[in-house]
């Protein structure tokens, strides 16, 4: 005797197997906890790039096994079918498909009985509640609540539910009042198949921003290595030329080699050296050089106790002392000629 299989089941398996065989990417998604209206909305929003099919787990496994006759390795998705799930076929690559489905996830309040995905801890402090029956509700949920200065406060930090434990109903009610939504609801991609390879969730769950930052850091490090090693490439040739030009310019300036590029810098350098030298013999300068020197910062005197010459000078016998220190133009010229050769 052979078991009778309903015709609609055979047709559903055949149709799904054909779709799996013809799709570039096939995945298994978890739909546990997704309300029916929300699930229909998600399917409608994702219809442009993917198609979601729900059947009994046994029928979906049969469809994958049948499709494996045409696409080797696709039956590796059978292990991902468990609990409440569905088959998704798409033209997106597995990583884009994961991000697209991950965008459907949202936080929802717990109703009681759900498995907590994380530790649920309530911190000490004020609450938005006014004194009343809510104090008893908080205490019943295990929170050390009290009334202080007309406010309901939590006296101490309290871990209400550990990760992996079921959320009690009385705790779920309190969490909703505190606007804490511990349950994440959405389409969760468990595994995806493309080009003979099955990608598990832990492989697909990539932080694209962190990954991009690592790629950029690696590219920058490779470029630096190429430049410092003197290895020319399409990307490093410009920095290499700039580095060579800078080195050649510095060498020409330090060696005193005149060129159209170095002459201005060398004249500026010579002028600075001349002004420094002139500042050491202020009495031997003409008016033009004195004016230029007064507008140019110079090094401080080597003798720390030595002060700059005073404009006022000392009075001696009713006359300014500076009148006695005046130098004739001939003496100034003679001093400069000896100073600069």
Concise account of the structure shown:
It contains 12 helices and 14 strands.
Keywords:
341 residues; alpha+beta; Molybdopterin biosynthesis moea protein, domain 2; Alpha-Beta Plaits; 4 domains; 12 helices; five-stranded antiparallel sheet; 42% helix; disordered C terminus; three-stranded antiparallel sheet
SSE layout and pairings?
Blueprint: H1 7-22, E1 25-30, H2 36-46, E2 50-53, H3 57-67, E3 85-90, H4 94-102, E4 106-108, E5 120-122, E6 125-126, H5 134-140, E7 145-148, E8 151-154, E9 158-161, H6 169-177, E10 183-185, E11 188-194, E12 197-200, H7 201-204, H8 208-228, H9 237-255, H10 262-278, H11 287-294, E13 315-316, E14 319-320, H12 329-340
Antiparallel strand pairs: 1-3, 1-11, 2-3, 4-10, 5-9, 6-8, 7-8, 11-12, 13-14
Helix pairs in contact: 1-3
Structural overview:
This protein is flat. The chain is built from twelve helices and 14 strands. A hairpin with a 2-residue loop joins strand 7 and strand 8 (151-154). It is 42% helix and 16% strand. It has helices spanning 7-22, 36-46, 57-67, 94-102, 134-140, 169-177, 201-204, 208-228, 237-255, 262-278, 287-294, 329-340, and strands at 25-30, 50-53, 85-90, 106-108, 120-122, 125-126, 145-148, 151-154, 158-161, 183-185, 188-194, 197-200, 315-316, 319-320. Helix 1 (7-22) packs across helix 3 (57-67). With 341 residues, it is α+β, with helices and mostly antiparallel strands. The protein has a five-stranded antiparallel beta sheet, with helices on both faces. It has a three-stranded antiparallel beta sheet with strand order 6-8-7. Mean pLDDT is 82; it is low at 301-341. It folds into four domains: 7-105 and 186-206, Ribosomal protein L10, N-terminal RNA-binding domain (Alpha-Beta Plaits, 2-Layer Sandwich), CATH 3.30.70.1730; 120-177, Molybdopterin biosynthesis moea protein, domain 2 (Alpha-Beta Complex); 212-255, no CATH class; 262-299 and 312-340, no CATH class.
